[in-house]
# Entry
Amino acid sequence: MAKAKRAIAKSDFVEKNLATALERLAVAAAAGEKAVAIRARDGKKLTLAVKRLAKRRGALLKRKKLAAKRARKNPSGDTRRALKSTIRELTTTSAALVKARAAKLANATEFAALRMASRRATGYSRAIALVDRRLA
# Structure
């Protein structure tokens, strides 16, 4: 079987492809750095939200305990209403806390992956720049 003849690459073709690849690498590195900065900022916001909601949930649990104690001691309409409102508030806070924790976890996972990709792109850019300076 005869082999098909392949065209030999020209120098301008190779140079053009190298330049395009270097531009794409620079764009990827810049986009990665920007995305890491945004994810880090969002992570801080989510951490504060989780902390705030967890603190609020703890306070509501204490309030619920006291309201239940008062309702058992003196079962009037006011004490039952106070207990119901505390339970309702606790339910909404707990649901918001679950959502915030899930969002924080998703952000942390994406942040770690983005940080690794950004480091790789930046490292490749630096290494290529060093090699280019040595070869030039």
